Amino acid sequence: MTALDPQAVRRKLTPSEMKARMVYIYDETNKGNLAVFEELFAPEFVSYGGAGFGDLHGPAAFRDLYQQFLVGMPDLRIDSTFMVAEGDIVFVRGTLTGTHSGDFMGVAPTNKRIEWTGTAVFKFGEQGLCVARWQEWDGLSVLQQLGVIPTPPNAPTPNLSHAPEADPTAADVDAERVNANRALMRRFIQEVWNEGNMDVADEIFAPNATSPDAPGLPDGPQGVKIIAQMFRSAFPDYHMEIDLIAAEGDRVAAHFIQTGTHQGELMGIPASGRTVRFGEMGLLRLENGQVVESFYNPDMLTLMQQLGVGGNAPASGA
C-alpha cells in the first residue's frame, strides 16, 4: 500500500496502515511538502489545544502553524522513534531538530541548534483520513535551549538518541499480550499515581528499567517512586486520568490528564494553593510482563505557567 492509495483513503485503516501513513506524512513534511496535510487530513480535522496553544480546525490551519515553525527553523526535521497503533488511533513519539535562524514566534534568531521530543496521537476516520490530533512536547526544554528561561545548574541532559524502529509499520496482534499490557498501564496509573501504593512499582518495573527523559533519576522502580512521591506530596489531591490508550505488541501508550491543588513544595516552587490541570504522554515497552523502558512528555510548560512561573511560549509536538 502506498500512503495515497485511493482504496485505502476510502476505508478504515489497519494499525499497520495508520503507521505507514504517519511515516509518509513525516517524510513529506521533512521535504517541505506541507500539502500533505490537505491530502491526508480530513476537512473536519481538529488539532486539540494544550501545551501552549488553542484548538486548530482544518488542515489549512495546521499547515499554517507548521509553516510558522519553518520560518523560525527552516531545517526543522521530525524523526519518529516509537509508534503504537490500535483501533483508530496511533501514538507517535519523535525527536525534532532545527536551527533557530529565524523569528520563532517572537523569539529573535539565536542560530542555536535546538533538539526536543514530542508525542502526538492521531485519530483516523472511516475514510482513512486523519480527523483529530492531540500532542504534548518538551516546550520547557526548548525555551531553556533558546535562552528564554534559565536552565537549572547541573541539570542532566535527557538522552534523545533513541534509535528509530527497524520497521515502524510492523504490527503485533497478540491479543493476550496486548490486553495484559493495557491492564498494566491502567494499574500503574491507578495504584501508583492515584492511590500512592509505591510497592506496586516494584512489581511493574524491572530493576534495570530505564527512562531516557529522566536522566537524573535512578533506574528501575526507585526512580518511579521518587517522581510519583514528589508530585503526590506537592499535590495531596493529585489525580491522573487516562483519556486515550493504545497497546500493541510489547508496548502500550496513553495520554493522561493530571489535576491537583499545589499545597506543597515542587522542584523548589513553594506551595501556591493554585489548582492545576495539564496533560502528559506516557509510553512503556515491556519484557516478560515488566516495563524495561519508558518515555514521557509531560506538559511542564503549562504546569509552570499555572503555578505562576515561566512565561508564554510557542508550542509544537511530534
TrEMBL record:
Q: Which residues cross the membrane?
A: none
Q: Which GO terms describe its biological process?
A: polyketide metabolic process
Xref: Pfam families: SnoaL
Q: Which InterPro entries does the entry link to?
A: Cyclase_SnoaL-like, NTF2-like_dom_sf
Top-level taxon of the source organism: Bacteria
Q: What is this protein called?
A: Putative ester cyclase
Taxonomic classification = Bacteria, Thermotogati, Deinococcota, Deinococci, Deinococcales
